[in-house]
Amino acid sequence: MRLAPGARRYALPPLVAAVALAFVSPPLAALALALGGFVVHFFRDPDRSPPPRGVVAPADGRVSVVREEDGRLRVGVFMNVTDVHVLRAPRTGVVESLTHRPGAHRPAFSKDSDRNERVDVTLDTCECSMIAGWFARRIHPYVSTGEEVTRGDRIGHIAFGSRADVLLPPAYDRGDLLVAEGDAVRAGETVVALRAADD
Fold it and tell me: Could you tell me which InterPro entries the record lists for this protein (predicted)?
């Protein structure tokens, strides 16, 4: 099973503790082992099969935001602790900028999460925002300015519970949306918007 970077850093301490605790307190050892197993599961990074057309979801989870901003549509996906937290490129394009914006750490499912710490990845076709939640304090982009990405490519991950948004290109309107708030989506596979002219 492929794991996202950082899995060893978070999983090794409880797994090592489980070995030591096995001789002192089996119940605590079992707890530490379960915690290590949860961390490994959390950092899983399964392969995905992107569709040939459309804007795909940047994250696994449920659509928590669909709104208009300055004439463009934003679709946000809330990830809970059981979802895969590796983020995917919504469309093919070149990374024009990578901007870290410090902020609060409100629950990622709340309206206040718009003010949370985030990293905005601007492609030449759209923008993807990696937004930290109340517990997630580590955003790990995988891409850099000038790099070309293909729809569904891995572009980063967020450690432990968070949100990922895609700001659609200006040409898209509500008639092009294929998802609504509450819908479950899969990163790199679920098409969230599609136009006849999409490649």
Answer: PS_Dcarbxylase, PSD-A
